[in-house]
Amino acid sequence: MSAHADVYGYIDPEGIAHVSTEKLDDRYQLFMRGDATFDSDKIARGIPGVDAKPNLSSPLMRLMLQHPNLKKYEAMLDQSAKEFSVDPALLKAIMAAESGFNPAAVSPKGAIGLMQIMPETAERYGVQGDRRKTIQQKLTDPKINIRLAARYLRDLQVLFPKRLELAIASYNAGEGAVQKYNNQIPPYPETRNYVQLVAQFYQLYQPGGGKAGTGDKPRRIEIILPGRRSMPPPTSIE
């Protein structure tokens, strides 16, 4: 699959960062350009062929690289990545695309937390509600949420070996949707934009993938994927 995977964004007067895979209006400025070409023979380079060209001087790029919650949960990300043999840069990329690093995010469909886990997925992996906490409440625990996301992503990569783009598409649309379309990325605008966005963020979070100076950081992010009706609302970081 080839895809023009440019990423646009802006920071509004309230300090909320908005990120999209399309230039939705004049406020959105290009801050990362790239052509994503998926080639399983070059999988070792990450998502192959992604030639990310970020604008490292932009406040938006600084936020994506230096978000307080990215640093806060980095140890959990690294631990889960090691446990399930998943690239930590990929976990960071999916977290950015799924929740914008917002641990309180809840989607209209009921996906919860930093990496937007559905309660049904949690049940599949043995998470049970009890008298103290429901499954939904347990998924608000970043440690449980991140570990479960890493485990699920590992299983998707096993299901689609050397097809990282399909594992990412499955994380968004479900493995059944990918299988329904003969092991191809489903023709859903949301999923196709999601794969592109994760591809760009994955390149960015590779070691040495982005370096930016310090500065004031916006406190909220809103990720917009054309084709997705609604995303979790951004919340302030305390």
Q: So what's the overall shape?
A: globular
**Unreliable sequence segments:** 36-52, 212-218, 229-238
What's the total number of strands?
7
In the sheet with the most strands, the strands line up as 6-4-2-3-7
Strand content: 5-15%
Largest sheet: 5 strands, mixed
The mean pLDDT is: 80
Q: Write down the Rg.
A: 17 Å
| Cα-to-Cα separation, first versus last residue | 41 Å
- Count of helical regions: 10
- Helical coverage, percent range: 40-55%
Topology as a string of helices (H) and strands (E): EEEEEEHHHHHHHHHHE
Describe the protein's topology.
Elements: E1 2-4, E2 7-11, E3 16-20, E4 29-33, E5 35-37, E6 53-54, H1 59-66, H2 68-72, H3 74-84, H4 88-99, H5 119-124, H6 135-139, H7 142-159, H8 164-173, H9 175-180, H10 189-205, E7 220-224
Parallel strand pairs: 3-7
Antiparallel strand pairs: 1-5, 2-3, 2-4, 4-6
What does this structure look like?
This protein is of the alpha+beta class and 238 residues long. It has a five-stranded mixed sheet with strand order 6-4-2-3-7. It has a two-stranded antiparallel ribbon with strand order 1-5. The protein is globular, with a radius of gyration of 17 Å.
Short description:
With 238 residues, this protein is an alpha+beta fold.
Salient structural properties:
238 residues, alpha+beta, five-stranded mixed β-sheet, two-stranded antiparallel sheet, 41% helix
